[in-house]
Amino acid sequence: MTERTDGTAEGTRTGGVRGTRTPGTEGERAAASWHTPGDPGASAADDPSHCPDPAALDRAWRDLVATARRTVADGLVVGTSGNVSVRVGDLVLVTPSGVPYDRLGPEDLTAVDLAGRSRHGSLKPTSELPLHLAVYRATEARAVVHTHAVHATAVSALVPELPPIHYMAAELGGTVRVAPYALFGTEELAAHALTALRDRTGCLLRNHGALTYGDTLDQAYDRTAQLEWMCRVWLTAHSVPGRTPTLLSPDEMEAARVRFRGYGQREP
Description:
7 helices, 268 residues, disordered N terminus, single chain
């Protein structure tokens, strides 16, 4: 299968990609125990020189796969149309291109350095690798989630920014911008996204989808879920005939942003 521009498949999985080393460390053995039924368990850490702590790498990969599967279960992506990454030291673990997430096991660990050079695994990284790497180079992100969620994509095709329909936008830094359209997988798209992300932790990509980042995979995922929810709220309110949604003022958004500094378990 060739790459498709609609994002529903980025490639196909071929034979002979699984590792053959016998798991040796405790982390490797633990990782091998969670492979998909019927798949042989194998080591993910095929180049220990680039990972001083294979167990930490295995845990991060397990969490990444769980997050990627959650994007499908929650309806934020169809097939393999989205992608997820997490940074571990100077390595970036990322979902591989065109592989259904329910088929990923520890032996499929895919990692690159910040220059995009392959460091672990033989699977091809997602076609959106330039987008993920650009975010890691320009921000303090530790995890990135990119989806093709329905409502976020619809809003991206309608307006230059998501109208401030709800104060949760303040958690992303303010009104969510829409990055101009560029072909998927290109440096141009990555550059547009960085501009839209200025002082923000999330943005929309025109006629494409949504991108969020955070300190953890859970935080990045929560932000993309909240962004999709806000897009749905605005589309719902905007669709009522004869009515115009009430929007938050800049002062109201700023007050919410300040309040979020002490939200949850964080120190004010």
